[in-house]
């Protein structure tokens, strides 16, 4: 049944609940570990977007996903500050940041490698501005089968199409928790008037505390896992590359002698 009846929309709408294995291809600070050709064999909760960008390339007969988007979507809508290149030359652009243990923002460099031609390009390879988002939204197709096309009332949720404003949640980095996702959840609670609202301030405090405590725990775990009374070999024997089982990540050890 799935093989004969399922379509691309079904795959894209049933991505929730799959095991998140982003660490297979997404390294620290947005560096990628796999090539674009490896997108489809890897099973994780973003692979459906890889299907979508492959279809865009195939159906548009373009050599590049980014070129297909620019030619068929961005240019007709006159959105000129939406890019699929990692090397952004736009002024007033957002830069990626992380938070240190004391909450101090830390600028990440080099920029994340997500872009046209890289793995999961359809999931995270797009950079755009608030102006471009507002320009694209009115041109978006109605894809939710439960959403009414004639009124602003849906059998599932009030879409608020008659509102005179649009609310965007923007984030240019991750703090000590996924605050941008939580803001979206909080807004949804308000729209639905959920009587059992979450205390996101308290959750943020707990999450930040756990995040800061995570790093000393990792160090302690590594020390605990050491083999007791083991004797290390000469450093020269550790020089080389040591791969994991999928052979997409490795640690490279080198030795440098500065004399005695």
Automatic annotation (TrEMBL):
SUPFAM superfamilies per record: beta-lactamase/transpeptidase-like
Superkingdom of the source species: Eukaryota
InterPro entries cross-referenced by the UniProt entry: Beta-lactam/transpept-like (IPR012338)
This protein's name: Beta-lactamase-related domain-containing protein
């Amino acid at each position: 049944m799935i093989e004969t009846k399922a379509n691309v929309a079904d795959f894209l709408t049933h991505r929730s609940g799959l095991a998140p294995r982003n660490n297979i291809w997404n390294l620290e600070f947005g560096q990628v570990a796999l090539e674009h050709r490896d997108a489809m064999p890897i099973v994780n909760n973003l692979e459906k977007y890889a299907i979508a960008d492959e279809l865009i390339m195939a159906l548009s007969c373009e050599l590049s996903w980014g070129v297909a988007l620019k030619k068929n979507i961005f240019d007709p809508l006159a959105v000129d500050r939406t890019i699929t290149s990692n090397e952004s030359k736009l002024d007033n652009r957002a830069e990626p940041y992380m938070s240190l243990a004391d909450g101090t923002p830390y600028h990440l460099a080099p920029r994340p490698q997500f872009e046209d031609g890289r793995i999961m390009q359809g999931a995270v390879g797009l950079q755009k501005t608030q102006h471009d988002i507002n320009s694209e939204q009115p041109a978006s197709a109605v894809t939710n089968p439960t959403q009414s096309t004639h009124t602003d009332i849906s059998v599932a949720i009030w879409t608020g199409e008659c509102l005179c404003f649009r609310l965007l949640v923007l984030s240019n980095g991750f703090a000590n928790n996924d605050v941008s996702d939580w803001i979206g959840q909080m807004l949804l609670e308000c729209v639905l008037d959920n009587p059992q609202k979450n205390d996101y301030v308290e959750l943020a405090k707990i999450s930040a505390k756990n995040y800061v405590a995570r790093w000393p725990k990792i160090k302690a775990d590594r020390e605990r896992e050491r083999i007791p009374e083991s004797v290390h070999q000469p450093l020269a024997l550790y020089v080389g590359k040591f791969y994991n089982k999928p052979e997409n990540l490795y640690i490279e050890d080198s030795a440098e002698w500065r004399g005695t």
